[in-house]
Amino acid sequence: MAICADAPFVTPPEVSPRVGPFVIVTPAHNEETFIEETIRSMVRQTVRPLQWIIVNDGSTDRTHDIVASYAARYPFIRLVDRHRQGERHFGNKAHAFNLGLRQCDVAALSFIGNLDADIALEADYFEKVLQRFEQDTRLGIAGGMVRTRIGDQFISQDVALDSVAGAVQLFRRECFEQVGGYRPLPLGGIDSAAEITARMKGWTVRTFPELCVLENRRTGTATAPPLLSRVKEGRRYHSLGYGFLFLCLRCLYRAMDRPRILGSLAIFIGYVRGLVSRSPILLPPDTVQYLRGEQQAKLRQQLKSLVVGKPS
C-alpha cells in the first residue's frame, strides 16, 4: 500500500464542490516521530479540508517546529498552541480538539473531523469518505478501517462496522452538534461516547473497510506499556457503562489479539477494578441504557447465528 511516497506536492481543491466545506482538527502532544508523515499524506489529498487545525498541545519536543514549517507553506494548515499542565490523558485531547474547533465558524461547515497525529492516509481518502456522505443523508459519522503498526506489521483493528475509530472520525455537522461534540472524559472513550450518542439519536455510524488507514502507534500506548494500556482500556469500558456479560464475551472474542490472552485478561482486570471500586459511569443513564440494549441485541444475534448454523 503506497502511502506518503516521495511524489511532488500538488495543489488540490480545499472544498468538496458536492458536499460543502469541512475542517479537520488534530490534537498533537509530543508527536515529532510521526506527525510529518501525517502532514505529508494530508497535503497530497485530492480534496483537502477548508482548514486543518493542528493544536500543539503542550508539546516539549519538535512538534511545534515541524507543524510551523508546513503551515508556512500550505495556507490550509493552521497551527494553534495550547499550554497545559499535568500528564497526558484523554481529557486533554478533548480540550485540545475543542480549542481547535473554536477557531472556525462551525455554522458554515458541512463536516467536522478528528485526525490523530500518527495517521497516514491514501491520497483520495477524504474524497471517498465525502462520497459516502453524499450517498447517505443519514450518515452521521464515517471513517476508514484502521490498521495499527504492531512490531513490523500493520494489523487491522477489525472494528464493528457500526463504529468508527476515534483516530479518523468525520462527522456531519448536524450530527456533531446533536451529540454535543467530544466530551472531556479522563479515562478516554470520547470517540465512543460520541458515536453511541449518535446512534441513539438515529444517525448511521459506519466504518468502510475498503478505505484503509495506517496508524503508526496503538492508541493509548504513547505513555504506557501495552498491558498497562489494556488495563486502562478495561477501566474505560466500565466508565462508559459496558455490560459485564458483553465485556466478558468481548474479551474472549479478542483473546488472540496481541498481546495474546494477556491483553484480554488485562482488559478484564481493568473493568473489574472499576466495578469493584464502584468507579462512576460517566455517560448519562439514557445513553448507558441504549448502549446496553445494543449490546444485548448483538449477543442475541450471535446466539441466533450459532443456533441456526448448528448442524442437525
From TrEMBL:
SUPFAM superfamilies per record: Nucleotide-diphospho-sugar transferases (SSF53448)
GO molecular function: glycosyltransferase activity
Keywords: Glycosyltransferase, Transferase
All residue ranges annotated as the Glycosyltransferase 2-like domain in the record: 24-155
InterPro entries: Glyco_trans_2-like (IPR001173), Nucleotide-diphossugar_trans (IPR029044)
PANTHER family documented for this protein: POLY-BETA-1,6-N-ACETYL-D-GLUCOSAMINE SYNTHASE (PTHR43630:SF1)
Family (UniProt): Belongs to the glycosyltransferase 2 family.
Name assigned to this protein: Glycosyltransferase family 2 protein
